[in-house]
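Subject: mismatched residue count in predicted assembly?

I count 430 residues in my input, but I want to confirm that the predicted structure covers every chain. Input:
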Amino acid sequence: MSKVVAQCIGMSLDGFSAGADQSMDEPLGLLGKDLMGWFFPTKTFVDMHGGEGGEIGVDDGFAAASFGRNGAWILGRNMFGPVRGPWPDEEWKGWWGEEPPYHVPAFVLTHYAREPIDMKGGTTFHFVTDGIHSALEKAKAVAGDRDVRIGGGPATIRQFLSAGLIDELHVALRPVFLGKGEPLLAGLDLRELGYHVDKMIPGERAVHMFIRKND
Amino acid sequence: MSKVVAQCIGMSLDGFSAGADQSMDEPLGLLGKDLMGWFFPTKTFVDMHGGEGGEIGVDDGFAAASFGRNGAWILGRNMFGPVRGPWPDEEWKGWWGEEPPYHVPAFVLTHYAREPIDMKGGTTFHFVTDGIHSALEKAKAVAGDRDVRIGGGPATIRQFLSAGLIDELHVALRPVFLGKGEPLLAGLDLRELGYHVDKMIPGERAVHMFIRKND
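Triage response: the counts match. Full output below for your records.
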């Protein structure tokens, strides 16, 4: 059955899932790379980037599993790029070069309309200007019985959580401090929103927390 | 060498180290017991309460170790009791009955002076009205080469962290949500304050995070 999921979301011990001051050089914000320090050494990540080797283990297992069932993605505007406000032109096509790692339709939340972009490898970016419910409807329509994956960033995940629209959220909690940045859970009453922590599984460089909607 | 430590501080995945609405019936606030859900099954806890059995393992190891080196404790007013404002009388002597689990001098931070109280088993409660630096000085004087342990609650630990006075903070991160309560780390820039996460050790019912001051 199709679910709405957010997976492999790095979170620091002080609660941030993106660093401050996102820029061209720092897509994850200042120190944001520390959040993904569990993912970079995995075989899954190394393979994705045409490398050899990479570690196999708990962290890698979750990284690999997260790519299996995605029928569509939803991305926040900042996850798609550093451009703010109206699109100045058609030049920006995401952080990922010619072949993004999605390989299915990816719906980008934005206030500014833009034509869809077909990328190599099956990713098509669609731009949705009428909010998260509309984006989810469109994503579900193309995902069929596969999952709709909310890619991030934190503000987007918080919107979906607040609306109770996420079925499963996998947080990779990291033993690092960011000090400042974008919080993932702070200020949300997840208990009130009907969520609980279903499983806690220690990995090599992160603790994997699986948050699920109550039955 | 004597250190200033805070140990076995439960924290929920949403960042709270005490529940909301502390009362006589709920010393840890609403749902606050969930924070200590890793501690209650341990042999250390069961022994302390005259029971038999109890689990031995990682969680128990840290629980047991935390009681070995304490030469003095510092407690916030709310950790000592539910009484707010001036002491109405001398009746309240802490949450713990006649023999509190400290067995050394314990300095209680308060705005309202009160005579020291000698309890069974070596605990003496001293009431300190002139702030955290004064309390720490007094505690260090009696602790000698043993540690000064900041017992909590969260507001007290935050005060000491903000002043850079804690050498080591052991957080037992729990896979639970509180939804509301008293945050432990939110709003503190621990990186700026010179702290890092030194070790992450998974236990049976909590992940133990050891936060240390940078050298």
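The mean pLDDT of chain B is 96. Marking this ticket as 'not a bug'.
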